[in-house]
DNA sequence: AGCTTAAGTTCCTTAAGGGAACTCTGCCTG
DNA sequence: CAGGCAGAGTTCCCTTAAGGAACTTAAGCT
């Protein structure tokens, strides 16, 4: 299939896709976050091909999103989120927010998120890191940054 | 390749991936958001195969993320974000935030975002829609929701 | 009448996903 | 201590999707 290499584009979206853009990768990350940390658990939960799961886990480890660590004297391993990986979960939370709103239908959200700070079932909202006001697609101007190509 | 159908899983992440999880789709969305709204523009900007671009655009239109509208009496069309699509751009902004932090390297961010409300170059931050406090991976408990499978 | 341009189609090659069977390693049980 | 078992992958074959170049179609322009 000779997939185009997104990682070398001067675009943080393309680079992020290079890390978790392959099919299944976000779901593998979700599983690890949700506590399915072992190969067999993830494979059984997702129904993913073992070959593809191996490839995805290796790639996520190479990218520093997951850490592979032994949990037994036998050759047994579990995968845990690194700090880099934990921050990627933000992306999943936004996907959940959008999916719950636009795709869940009458049945409602499959999973609810209870916020520790307030104890309420809630969802994420995007705010400006600088002023704290809402920050969405229409609230910003795009400017070339220091890492822009040419 | 007989890709697994994510859309029918009881998971908002999987369902969202069914809409924009295919290769190139987020970049197509980015281009439309950035003002590349025509087939030739997107194709030239991304270097994507025309065949794949056709498939992606059709899929995004079917999913209600983009609208295909004529802009001339000749058969000429442009693609514009629907409300559903505009809200998906939130996802791109979070990808940008993560990519800028973890993947941009010394060169820095390729694109900067200036927030209208405060006029500052900034980035997005995830907050609880209920209480306004930060809401990240470690700040929530997961509970089964009404749309949970079984 | 022929050229140009935007927006796709078609066709072929190559590589990636699906899925089942197989391997390898070390503990556990009789 | 032989055999079984379980976790974590590998290997192999088949099908399908991505790349890429060439071709098509439908106005409008010269």
Short description:
The structure is a homodimer of 150-residue chains. By secondary structure, chain A is of the alpha+beta class.
In words, what does this structure look like?
2 copies of one chain form a homodimer. With 150 residues, chain A is α+β, with helices and mostly antiparallel strands. Chain A has helices at 12-20, 25-34, 39-46, 50-62, 83-102; strands at 66-70, 77-81, 111-115, 121-122, 124-128, 140-144. In chain A, 39% of the residues are buried. The model of chain A has no long low-confidence stretch (mean pLDDT 94). Chains A and B meet through helix 1, helix 2, helix 5, strand 3 and strand 4 of A and helix 1, helix 2, helix 5, strand 3 and strand 4 of B. Strand 3 (111-115) of chain A pairs antiparallel with strand 6 of chain B, so a sheet runs across the interface. Chain A binds a DNA duplex (30 and 30 nucleotides) through helix 3 and helix 4.
Pick out its properties.
18% strand; two-stranded antiparallel ribbon; homodimer; 5 helices; DNA-binding
Outline the secondary-structure elements.
2 copies of one chain form a homodimer.
Chain A: H1 12-20, H2 25-34, H3 39-46, H4 50-62, E1 66-70, E2 77-81, H5 83-102, E3 111-115, E4 121-122, E5 124-128, E6 140-144
Antiparallel strand pairs in A: 1-2, 3-4
Helix pairs in contact in A: 2-5
The structure holds a DNA duplex (30 and 30 nucleotides).
- Mean pLDDT across residues of chain A: 94
Query: What is the percentage of strand-forming residues of chain A?
Result: 15-25%
* Largest sheet: spatial strand order of chain A: 1-2
Biggest interface, residues from each chain: A-B, 87 and 87 residues
Give the structural class of chain A: alpha+beta
Shape of chain A: globular
Q: What oligomeric state is this?
A: homodimer
Tally the helices of chain A.
5
Q: Sketch the topology of chain A as an H/E string, one letter per element.
A: HHHHEEHEEEE
Give unreliable regions of chain A as ranges.
none
- Taking the alpha carbons of the first and last residues of chain A, their distance comes to 30 Å
Whole-number radius of gyration of chain A?
A: 18 Å
How many β-strands of chain A, per DSSP? 6
């Amino acid at each position: 299939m000779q997939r185009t290499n997104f990682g070398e584009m001067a675009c943080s979206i393309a680079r992020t896709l290079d890390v978790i853009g392959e099919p299944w990768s976000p779901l593998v990350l979700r599983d690890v976050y949700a506590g399915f940390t072992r190969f067999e658990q993830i494979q059984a939960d997702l129904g993913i091909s073992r070959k593809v799961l191996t490839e995805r886990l290796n790639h996520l480890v190479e990218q520093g999103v997951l850490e592979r660590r032994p949990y037994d004297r036998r050759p047994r391993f579990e995968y845990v989120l690194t700090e880099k990986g934990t921050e990627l979960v933000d992306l999943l939370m936004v996907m959940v927010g959008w999916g719950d709103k636009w795709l869940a239908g009458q049945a409602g959200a499959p999973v609810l998120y209870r916020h520790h700070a307030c104890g309420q079932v809630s969802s994420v909202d995007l705010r400006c890191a600088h002023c704290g006001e809402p920050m969405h697609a229409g609230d910003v101007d795009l400017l070339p940054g220091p890492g822009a190509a040419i």
